[in-house]
Design brief:
Number of strands: 18
Keywords: Disulfide bond, EGF-like domain, Signal
Largest sheet: 6 strands, antiparallel
Bound molecules: calcium ion
Organism: Porites evermanni
Strand content: 35-45%
Structural class: mainly beta
Helix content: under 10%
Distance between the termini: 41 Å
Number of helices: 0
Shape: elongated
Protein name: EGF-like domain-containing protein
Amino acid sequence: MGNETNQGPKKMVNSHYYNVILDINECREELRCGKDAACTNTEGSFRCTCNIGYYGDGYICTECYTIFDFEDHDLSNWTLNGTAFNNQPTYGNNTLSRRGRAWSNHKGDWWIGTFENRPSPSEPFGGQQGDGPQGSLTSPSFQITGKLLTFLIGAGCRGYTSPNIRAELIVDGVVVRKETPTECDGAMKEKSWNVTDYAGKHAQLRLIDYSSGFWGHINFDHLQACHKLISYTDP
Ligand SMILES: [Ca+2]
Ligand SMILES: [Ca+2]
Ligand SMILES: [Ca+2]
């Protein structure tokens, strides 16, 4: 939002002085607002609004916005079943402590990793609960406003855990999209779902670790909604 006020000379009316507002149409200047935003002139000021399908404050407008990134490290509004997610989210690149100096490829400081046990920076680096625990973690409801959901997912291993390690998108109580990581690699990779058919609907994300075997854990971070179909990997 613009907040500039252009005050002109004082004008006397009935023995009182009043400020005379000389409006400037700031929108005539190029790049007053961000790229992909519209400028609206107002008296004494102006307003920037992101175009339809873009998200931001009118100065920086992006095609994607974050739905869940776990940076508030608070799962109190999520539903946990079983024990796999008891120690989540995970702080920092906890996987680096292990053999091969594995890289989790998370964003920010916090992410979901059901092999890990480091739910705060004060817990020992490298803490782990292992593959044994099983369970699920279901998100609060969110509205699908873009055409694409993207996210980071890792762990799971073809031939050992498939399909018992997976992420699901639930709409109206039905699983409409799922992603099963199979690459036997803890480093999360970006995957996406085309959700054009569900625009405006309310949805939930469910993460599932129903495996106790080799690579029986899930890594997940950074669910975001995007306006455009940049690329996607439907089932
Ligand atoms: Ca103005
Ligand atoms: Ca994160
Ligand atoms: Ca497990």
